[in-house]
UniProtKB/TrEMBL annotation:
InterPro entries in the cross-refs: Cucumopine_C
Location of the Cucumopine synthase C-terminal helical bundle domain: 158-297
Protein name, as recorded: Cucumopine synthase C-terminal helical bundle domain-containing protein
Pfam families: Cucumopine_C (PF18631)
Species this protein is from: Actinomadura sediminis
Top-level taxon of origin: Bacteria
Amino acid sequence: MRERRIQIGWAELGITVTAELDGRNPALADALWNALPYRSLQGHALVAGHHLFHVAPVHELLHLPAEQKVDRRAVPDGTVFCSRLQHLGIKYGELTEPMPATPVGRVLPADVDALAEAGRAVWDAVYSSKRHVFAEVSRLGEAGECRVPRLRAEDPTVDALIGKVHAETERVWTHPPEELVELHEGRIASRAGSYETVLTTLLFVNGETRPLGYCAYGGLVRAAADGMPLDCLRQMARILAATPAEFLGYCGLQTLHQFTEGALDAAARMERRTDFLALMSQMALYVNCLGGWNLQLFPWSVGGHLRREACPA
């Protein structure tokens, strides 16, 4: 097996680490390798523990099969994962969530301390300072233009919609979407939020956006890739996506709502599963991008006084 090393850098932190793709889950590793280079907003786990993750602009991660799964808690620090949530994740310390994960490589031992330093800095950026930190991922020793990939459809109308979704995704990929900024600053045209509250609306928006990307659109992509009949895909698309998108539009994410309505209308007329797969994949990447920005902008530190109590042995 030829050696394949990737470089993961955070220019805002002045930290770079090198990881080796080690042959585990080769289909996922190949998809990641072929998508490089890219740049993405760096996130941090908010529940699971010492874990970095970001949305990887790799459509295939949504549906490619995994050959090996592990308990993230038990693997060495520095293990790199690709997931069906369209994430590239890296463990840098203790994890508590028993989630099966699909490893593709490992940060070199010499860089594990630097990785932990990056992890602590990203946690501060996500939880309190709200500083934007971006992961830059490339093949070791190579550089190139970082772009968001665009899929194609045979139907001209579907392809045009994919183009609009792609253009908006690329526009907000490294710049916070104005609609989310407005929402987080309390400017909500619909007046969503009982008794003028904002935090409640932010909480519900976060709680709807992530599963819309991870479960609804991601699930539709997997179902299409696995061969679900097109009639069933059409029905499931409206069942899974219409209501949450309508609610998010009411809360201020009108672009997402409009794209979803367009995607559902297009799906109702589609004759090719490949077109459905392309459109839902492009939508999944867009919604997952919004989800990443939601996590970055959300005022997590307002709950700083709430701390976990030690449980009796």
